[in-house]
């Protein structure tokens, strides 16, 4: 059933601008984070700080479906936005790297409550054909934020206003929240079961020790590998087992692992995990390589994401229209092209050296941006195909968990190799290998058979 919205055009603009604001938050803060850590003597903690910046999101995303069902999606958006505002205001005034990391972690929890909202809300307001077109629009507006966020943040850093980028996302959110609060009903799902607090605790006991262990390793802390530090991976394994058992016997789990029974969701989850390696490299380690290996300015460093986001803006305008013409036929071909583009972009990064022209960075960024746009447009309708609408929010939260989860693990993991070699280049080699695996994953597992198509169309008849 589609929800009735009086002014759908204004509502769509609000949803799209929320996506833009989220990318301003993520990419703008990433650009400003490295110079700020340098300023407050915390650059040696970069891998841990970057990972903690998405760890809270990783914890919050799986619970979005369950929380939204009980309190309403609209309330969840307001709560998440409020957390982001309070913590980012604190970041503006902090001069302690450990307080900075704590605030980044908490703010990422708020971001996790909000970031899947555009996709899940569109799926409840418009029919599937129209929604697929708007998913492409989301990709475009996300790219606008990811394009303008780093550029404006880099310019502000070079101008001596390095803390303002942490608040650049706010105007977009204010407009979006006002419209959503007025237009979108705060629907709740009736449930006799209590919210699964224990499942969320188990997830936190997996994510936080894992990120700490990898982050301390990437920061060159021997504590991570000897003595008490070795307890951390053991904690991860124990609580992972407990979470699986707990979710299997809980009626409404905070971490809806039951969604993995859907084969298309499983494939999309793992493909998205590997897709995120490209954008993580481009916005993080490529930026650092430009700043500290190529010795360029923060403004020049911020251009690493510009070509990627320009191609995202352009491609997002028509990718959804191409996809909806013959979804079953086109989705596989488009996703293969997307993963090949990501591999080609990372290959450009692999041949960088300190004397390389910026053109090589921009070419790699642009080619990978095409791949990002294709995958952003295709993945959500792919795993939603045949999925009941009441599962959309839970599936979208878990799907985006794959991206934030991989980012939280990938950054500190490759940081270990950066610390061991004293070079950023191993990051690009590892990402390229993962991109190659992703191509194979799509080739062999992304498909919608005639039987699947008949079954799905039969339920709609």
SSE topology:
Layout: H1 8-39, H2 46-60, H3 64-71, H4 73-93, H5 97-114, H6 117-125, H7 128-158, H8 170-183, H9 197-218, H10 231-249, H11 263-292, H12 298-302, H13 306-325, H14 327-350, H15 358-384, H16 392-421, H17 425-445, H18 450-460
Helix pairs in contact: 1-6, 1-7, 1-8, 1-11, 2-5, 2-9, 2-16, 3-4, 3-16, 4-5, 4-8, 6-7, 7-13, 7-15, 9-10, 9-16, 11-15, 11-16, 11-17, 13-14, 13-15, 14-15, 14-17, 16-17
Provide tags for this entry.
single chain, 461 residues, Growth Hormone, Chain: A, 77% helix, Major facilitator superfamily (MFS) profile domain-containing protein, transmembrane, MFS_trans_sf, MFS
Description:
This protein is an all-alpha fold. It contains 18 helices and no strands. The mean pLDDT is 83. Helices cover 77% and strands 0% of the residues. The chain starts with 7 loop residues before the first helix and ends with a helix. It has one domain: Growth Hormone, Chain: A.
